[in-house]
Each structure stands twice: as structure tokens, then as C-alpha cells.
Amino acid sequence: MLALEENTLAPHYPVEAPVPQTVALYELDRSEKAAIERLIDMLAPRFSMVESSDFAEECAIHAQELPIGLRRFLYHFKTLQLRKGTALIRGYQMQDHRIGDTPSHWDMPWENPKVLREEIYQCLITALVGDIFGWVTQENGRFMRHIVPIKKDAYEQLGAGSAVDLVWHNEEAFHERRATFLSLLCYRNEEQARTITCSIDDFELDPSQENLLRQKRFVIQPDKAHLPEQNDSQHWQLSDEQFSLIKSHMENPPVIPAIYGPAWERFIQVDQAFMEVVDNDPATKAAIDGLYEKFDRHKAEIVMQPGDLVIIDNDKAVHGRSKYKPNYGPRQRWIRRVNVTADIRKTQDYRANTRSRQLY
Ligand SMILES: [Fe+2]
């Protein structure tokens, strides 16, 4: 691995922020970058978009041709040997002039995008830690989200928010088959918004606190991104049927622990904004609030630069985003997100058929 040979940063990014110690960093060297570009050259003419089961399958297969060093790094990350909840892969050359303006909304068409190469880059690398999927209740099952600031959602706990901190959560914490990993690729972040992450392994837990957090004393509701009003689009008609499972979950949420797994390998399932303690038990409330305080104290802050790819272990680490002031308009912050599961077979109960990559 070599450091970046050339300054890839646009004038708006004068300083490359230091990478926190709790984040595993992989810097692509010149030959690795060239090999990845060749792989994208081969795949791009075959697909007009990434939103298909055909693409997801080919992506998983060709990811095995990515440079060996990167594969080894992500293999060790995936199998928990790095003891880090977040990985940062640096070195993709984001060509600011080619990607065009930041979209004003998430509701954009997905065929023949200007950013097909960037989408393939993100999907290929993320496919090394799992199979790509989308949620039927979020953008009608699309794999790739545009995370851009939207004025009317500024105060919401959504990717489109900005005026409030996006508080600690596992992605789709409410769902039994939530993503094992999610990746975020930065296209633009002139506002220098800070992505925050923290792993359950980044600090010690008091045994009595951990004991309470391991008990089935919590319920988590779906976040607003899974509600019909947040999924209104010019591109599809929503049906009641696609939200029926979410609706039944909201009416009858399962009671779950916040921490699970053996003492030597703890996993977490939390959402600060949408999680409640059953019966409002004060000791349990204190235990979960204490956990959020520990996340605050031990958090890693990443100021993503264009081309930075962050992969978050959604079983080990929570994430969020500090509030920031968007440069609303064509150069506003622009992040893409994709979810993957380490075991697609276990999601079968939530899919319509074997090849479908959309979960209910
Ligand atoms: Fe999130």
C-alpha cells in the first residue's frame, strides 16, 4: 500500500482530515487504481444501470477480480479480525467535472446516470463484504440512495436532514434482516459535514449495564424513510401491500435486546431516535442512555472527501452525522449509500423469489 501519489482534492478541500484510530484505512496505490478502472471499463458497457438482479450478481462475481490487497483487507474486516467497526478506502479519483451537479432530491431517474462508473465502483467494492439489496419500503427497492440535503427535511432524522445531528443508529435497526454492512461513497462534501461512527468494541462496558442491555427490554420502530410519505416519487406508484409488513411491525414490534452475541464478540441493535424501553424501566433507560454517552465520548469523526468510501459494520458499529450548514444548490453535499447482507440466503423469507434483491 502506498500513500496517494497525487493531490486528488478539489480546491474546496484544502486539508485532508486525519483518519481516526478506530477506523481501518486502506489507501489504493497507483496499480490498484488502474486495475479497478479496468474492471469498471469492462462492466460499464454491459449495464445501463446498477439497479437489477443481473447487475448485483455480476458485481458479486467480478468483485473477486479486485486487487488482492483490497480483498485481503476487506476479508479481515468482514471476519472481525481487524477489530474495527468502520473501514475507509481512499484513492478513488472522483472527477468533479464529469459527475455533474449534485441532485436536488433523492428522487432521480436511475437509467444511464452520469455517475454509472462511480456506482459500479461502490457496488464492486461493497460486494466484497456481502450481497447488494434494497428495501421495498425505501425508494421502491433501489440499491443506491442519493443522500443530499433537502430543505423541508432539515430537522428530520433522515439522510436529507442537516440542522440537527443524525443520532446514533444501526441501519434499519428495527429489521431482523437488516444490512450486515453499508457503504457510503462521497461525491461532494464542501460543507465538511462529519460522519460519525463508533463500535461496541471501542470502549469498556460496566457489567451491570451490559447485563441490562442484553435483556429483551427494547422495541425499535422503523425510521421515517420507510413510511409511504417519504417514498412518494415521479417514478413509481406505491401500493398498500408493499408497506403491510412495516405496518404490522409498527403495530406489534418485537421485544429485543440492545446487545447480543458472546461476551468476547458483542453485537448491537440500537436506534437512539426510534428505540423505546418497554415499561419505561428507569434502570434500563439509564443503561441505554449510558451507552449513547459512551458512543459520544469514543466516536470517530470522518470528514469524507470526494472518492472516500466508508464501509460500516452494521452489527458492530453505530453511525450518525453531525449537523451542518448545507450549500443548497448544485454543489451541495452528495453521498451515495448501498446496503449488503453477508448471507443473502437468510433473507429469503423477506423476498418474493430467489433472484429478487428487494426485501420487505
Ligand atoms: Fe444511517
Account of the protein in words:
By secondary structure, the chain is of the alpha+beta class. The protein has a single domain (23-359), classed as Double-stranded beta-helix, CATH 3.60.130.10. 23% of the residues lie in helices and 19% in strands. It contains eight helices and 16 strands. The strands form four sheets. Strands 1, 2, 3, 4, 6, 13, 15 and 16 form an eight-stranded mixed β-sheet that branches. It has a four-stranded antiparallel β-sheet with strand order 5-14-7-12, with helices on one face. The model is unreliable at 1-9 (pLDDT under 50). The site of fe (ii) ion (FE2) has 3 residues, from loops.
Structural class: alpha+beta
CATH fold-level topology: Double-stranded beta-helix
Question: What's the SSE pattern?
Answer: EHHHEHHEEEEEHEHEEEHEEEEE
Helix fraction? 10-25%
Domain TauD/TfdA-like: 161-338
Keywords: Iron, Metal-binding, Oxidoreductase
Binding site for Fe cation: 169, 171
Family: Belongs to the clavaminate synthase family.
